[in-house]
Amino acid sequence: MAEPGPMSFSELSEIDVGRLVGVGPKKLAALRTLGISTMCDLLMYYPRRYLDRTNQATIAQLSPGEEAMVWATVQSISTRRVRNNRAMVVAEVSDGSGRLKISFFNQAWRERQLSPGTQAVFYGKLEIFNGTRQITNPVVDLVGDKTGRILPIYPQSEKAGLSTWEIGEFVAQTIRRCRSRGFADPVPEVVLHEHGLISRQQAIEGVHLPDSMGAAMAARKRLVFDELLRIQISLIQKKRTLEHEAVGFSHESPPALFAQYLDRLDFELTGAQTRAILEIRGDLARPLPMHRLLQGDVGAGKTVVAIAALLAAVESGHQGALMAPTEVLAEQHFLGISRDLAGITVSAGPGSLFETRDLRVALLTGRKTAAERRRTLAELESGDIDLVIGTHALIQDAVSFRSLGVVVIDEQHRFGVEQRDALRTVNPDRCAPDVLVMTATPIPRTAAMTVYGDLDVSVLDELPPRRSPILTSWARTDIEVDQVWDQVRAEVAVGRQAYVVCPLIEESEKLEVASATETYERLALVDLKGLRLSLLHGKMASADKEAVMSAFRAGEVDVLVATTVIEVGVDVPNATIMVICDADRFGIAQLHQLRGRVGRGAHQSHCVLISQEPSADGEARIEALVASTDGFELAEIDLELRGEGTIMGARQKGQNDLRLASLRRDAAWVPKARQAAMA
């Protein structure tokens, strides 16, 4: 009988972790809590850092302000109540060279975890307070009396109840069991040599059982490459399959409809818009379905490019669809596009008494009445509707098109890949429509290559010349906040308008509406008394929302107090000041989107971020917004501050593979992995 070959990760993913010695029902449940079910999961549960015993700083050597990692023993610990009845746990730890005060807020369970005599690694920023060296809310890793030159420290969970040394023992046992067969290496030797990478066997042992920090770093480099390569192979295979198997439409008609639309615009297209439209028209002329990403800064004019693609479909005798992530945004797109295309005519088709008819734009969202929905669905199927704008309602089974030629998906990061792909199979003849995906804000290059690696990319990197720069400031004291409302009054006094955006409350839309209502009432009665104020939030009926927006567009409202419902799609050139309350609750991309609601006319515009007690992260985000109005620069800063978690969340479920790789730290490896995947 032939000897079995090296073990692949696929084979290891079939072996239950419960087969390891020491893993009984309780430990098995704990491991599953960490997402570890198989031996493959265990090997891919990487240390989050290492304690280098050969180069370990002592408490006495630490300097204030630096990130410190110390291995110390708990000497004493106690809990007391502080302001607002919050629990404050204070421990004193020592490593023989000195003592350190460790404080935890709202973590009462730490007193049980860190009983006197417990050995642990504490990781955080060292500060001096009242002459005492201390770390507040550090990351804690229980290490017991584990010895060794390089100690791997694994992510731990209070809920799981597993220590880093227990995880390490299970990993080491798995490696010992596999050593006789070794690990199969799917990456060709020539690729490893080209990039100076070690074997998979060396990498697995080096990341979990390093004999030096150099070995750990070499292992990490190889495993990072593997993760990025796996993603790129998946994306490229998908793109090639689509190109070889899918049948699309060829839109070769001259752009007469788009020419009609351009004649109505009171501005010239930017060079970037013209370039993107030419790239899209080149895709549309081919019989293969387009699969393109359009990204650009706030206000760069993505909608004009989208309309060019949609009209190309109508010009060729097909239909176009624009899918937005929310009903509010879908309704705003519908109103704007209906207005911009009003009076444009298309061929009436055979059987009609007239040569032409008006181009028809329809809206399809979950708020339609049953009768309206039935009529819209029937007209989509018959082809009487040329362009439809909607939400995820567009990809429900009941929706049929006569011939869907082009799909534009706005704000792609709010859709799953499965939803995007569902629109490819809607046509009766199985011809796949061309797809254009638009992002709300720029994505860093490496992230775009990873998240949207199956798409061709067009970039709008110019703002229209009519756009005035937006001056951004931060109000952090009561006096500065009072000055903000004076500034709003001054803008209104010269005929301008203002937005006031209320804080984002992620836990509850009801709370968010309540917050907006409370802010509206306070401003109307006190700070902005005498001005014409209106309130807008997502819980209002569609008709009421549109009435408020219509009044604001018409200049009948001075100040619009709103939730983030106005984040995208609102375009009122006369609005020149945006005030964002509790700005530290928002992410950089959302703040940049909100700021983009002003600066749309010829007058100087302002954005004021109110935040009086921001966290360190919140302060960094606000400072970034004050310093830059460049969305591409802010995207890189956002990636640096927040990491790739949210960006990678745009990927299909089950494909968020970055356990070790970081799109910030490992940016240089993304194009290398893509090049290897394409070979």
Task: Note down, in words, how this protein is organized.
- The chain is of the alpha/beta class and 679 residues long.
- The protein folds into four domains: 77 residues, DNA polymerase, domain 1 (Orthogonal Bundle), CATH 1.10.150; 94 residues, OB fold (Dihydrolipoamide Acetyltransferase, E2P) (Beta Barrel); 205 residues, Rossmann fold (3-Layer(aba) Sandwich), CATH 3.40.50; 159 residues, P-loop containing nucleotide triphosphate hydrolases (Rossmann fold, 3-Layer(aba) Sandwich).
- The chain is 38% helix and 20% strand.
- The protein has 23 helices and 23 strands.
- A seven-stranded parallel sheet has the order 13-14-10-15-16-9-17, sandwiched between helices. A six-stranded parallel sheet has the order 18-23-22-19-21-20, sandwiched between helices.
- A hairpin with an 8-residue loop joins strand 11 and strand 12.
- Helix 10 packs parallel to helix 11 and helix 20 runs antiparallel to helix 21.
- It is globular, with a radius of gyration of 29 Å.
- The two termini are 36 Å apart.
- The relative contact order is 0.09.
- About 1% of the residues have low confidence.
